[in-house]
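Lab notebook, page 48
Experiment: co-folding of the full assembly
Goal: obtain a model of how the components sit together before planning crosslinking
Operator: M.T.
Materials (sequences as entered):
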Amino acid sequence: MENLNGYLIISAILFSIGTVGVLTRKNAIVIFMCVELMLNAVNLTFVALSRHLGNLDGQVFVFFVMTVAAAEAAVGLALMIAFYNNKESIDVDDINLMKW
Amino acid sequence: MFDYVWLIPFFPLVGFLINGLFGKKIKNEAVIGAIGTLAIFSSFIVSCLILVEMVGLSPEKRIFEKVVFPWIHSGNLKADMAFLLDPLSCVMIMVVTGVGSLIHLYSIGYMHGEEGFYRFFSYLNLFCMSMLLLVLGSNMLVMFIGWEGVGLCSYLLIGYYFHKKSAGDAAKKAFVMNRVGDFGFLLGLFILYWWLGSNHNIWTINFMEIKEASHLLPYGGVVTVATLCFFVGATGKSAQIPLFTWLPDAMEGPTPVSALIHAATMVTAGIYMIARMSFVFIKAPETMLIVAVVGAATAIFAATIGTAQNDIKRVLAYSTVSQLGFMFLAMGVGAFSAGIFHLMTHAFFKACLFLGSGSVIHAMHYALHHEHLHDDAQDMRNMGGLRKAMPITFITFFVSTIAIAGIPGFSGFFSKDEILWQAFANPYHGSVNYILWGTGAVAACFTAFYMFRLVFMTFFGDFRLNAKVKEHLHESPLVITIPLMVLGFLAVVGGYIGMPKVMGMLPNYFEHWLDPVFELANEYGATYAHSGAHNSHALEWGLMGGSVVIALIGIGIAASMYLKNTGAPAKFVAAFPTLHRAVYNKWYIDELYDYLFVNPCKAFGQFLWKGFDVLVVDGVVNGVASVVMGFSGIFRYMQSGLIHNYAWSMAFGVVVMLGYYVFK
Amino acid sequence: METLFFVIVSLVAIVSAILVVTCRNPINSALSLILTFFCLATYYVMLDAPFMAAVQVMIYAGAIMVLIVFTIMLLNIRVNASKSQTHKVLLGLLIGFFTLLNTAVIVFKSRVALPNGPLTGDIIKQQGHTELIGRELFTTFLLPFEITSILLLVAIIGAVILAKKKI
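Observation: model returned without errors.
Model output:
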């Protein structure tokens, strides 16, 4: 496939943007959304390479990544709701009970 | 019968185990005493049977080694648990088991009512076992086991009254001084083993094998060093200068202990060791001279201290040190069989003297206790005129005293006279002989003096405490007096097997018996002997007469001062106060040792404790702990609990790792 | 033609991704993320994987993002104008830049295997992508498939228990 490098670069860019978001934002849900962005970038890599190599293994793997992301979303958001019930805030800097 | 020689140390071992493990439960004193006494008596029976069998053999055949089990076979070292039977060890086992049995019997009566009765008998049996291992051992290692064992038992028994601090201190002193000597013994052993091994490839510590290889040893040189080291061991065990101060303090133990260990058996271990290694010692003329000089010096030194002591057991202790000096003098001039002969007669009369003094102390304790007085039962100044109250004790004691003084007809005369004659007439030391003989003669005079002083102060004259105490004095029971009588009898007749040839009445059985053991040594000695012995009979008779006169002079002086309660002793002390104070205080040797050795050791121990242990060892251990705590204090900030910190570290790590591989 | 299309979609995707990261209002971030997902679905279609595109829209844009929007609205998060929403921006940008750099270098310097697998674009168009994926999923990858179902069960139970006020 002649455009493979392009897809991979796009994927890398999306991944980096996601990383910046995870490291920088303070809102927990926004951090979560950036993590989803990173996962999707990886999914793009998988599919692009699977198409290039002529094999379906990459796409099946994407399938499973999506499943796991869904499960993670459910549990993670439930966690945030539980945390909000406790502290009235979802700023990650407020999650500091275990701080020294 | 020779095959059963292992039974001899085995019986006391069994006695030790039974009394030691179960003695506390067997409350019956008679049973405990019987077990102990029967154990050692069985060894005596076996020894007698072996002696009878050995007498029946011809002299060259009188040697037998019994390997009980092979023990150490490691590289070049071959040491089995093996016993050697020859005329010398026969003499020793007879003395040890015979005198030992009598003392066990005596202890049943003497230690009656003591708490820890079973402990005494088990230790006594352990001691007998160690001593028998020592004298029967056929290689230096088995002998060393016995050597250490008797030292240990000496500690246990001297410290028998462990509630008293003085007893504990005396026990420790004995043990430490013994250890210093043991170090010498080990050094000698190592040097001999190493030299024979590396120069002639004969790696052995077996006595008979060393005897066969002894012709390869040089005269002097390394042999002098080795034998001097052995001699240091002998001075520790047999209480010679410089390691003798433990023996008088060892009188803190019960009297049977003093009789057995510090008169008849343990202290003779050094003499036996030199006799056993006679073929090595004779090859070092310098060592022989040193042995003789140290022996003579100790003899006179201890004799002077004994003249001023007031405790009955102290006098006997110094007398022992002095008599051991005589035995070493004999060894040093090459008269090995004379030394062993004196060892045997000394065992008889000294044991009798100690047991007799025990009987006296026993009676005095009883009498003072009944009058509720707290005077010292061992102080001769509290006694006097006891011969009417305690006839049997008196007779046996008196007979033994005559023996030790060297009056003709009694055992001590023959052995001591032989030693003095050999000191004068031996071919090894040239004109030093006269000094040796002179010192020995003066020591003999002192011996007669202080022994008769003791007898006169204790048994003659008037009782020095009040008459009511005297009424309570009575003779000791049979269990105590029978051993006294047996030993007293032996003190009289024991010398006749060793009558010197010059007297022409009986052949010198003893010397002939020990000839095969020492003939190799005599052979070696003959190669450097000079100016052959003055074998003139006239000279021998003359010196014999001289020693009798010397003894009588000593007795005479003692009689004039002490037979009646005159004021002569007090006037003498008043005339020479400094001399008396020095002699009474044992020439301040203990204080000297304190200054030279004990206090520096204590200071060093303090330094090691405060300086080294607290600062260095604890410092290191605590330091490690502090370092760990310090580091953990730094590292615990890594777990902050903040999500972003974790995210940052993860991202940073990924970038670095990827970057490394990408740009490699 | 195709390249142009690709570039346009890429620009849209990148811009919306940046919006996800930088919007102050979480709802705006969520909406931008949905746009990014649609772009990715377009990519999948371009890569001859229409089934994946459909699944992407259904699951990600349809389920997960709806869940997230519900949560934002449920928690009634107000955008606090005074408090800052970010910290250490410059350092974050640096890390992001280096990640991109590393990945780009890897992409350009590496050698990819030859495209000689069994499936070509024609076969996929001929046989139907769904059927092919289904066949793979239920034969070679049956075990992970079953385990994933258990995983989903665990997630459901976990979500229910975590969010309850009283257990």
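Interpretation: The CA atoms of residues 654 and 660 of chain B lie 10 Å apart.
Next step: discuss with group before ordering constructs.
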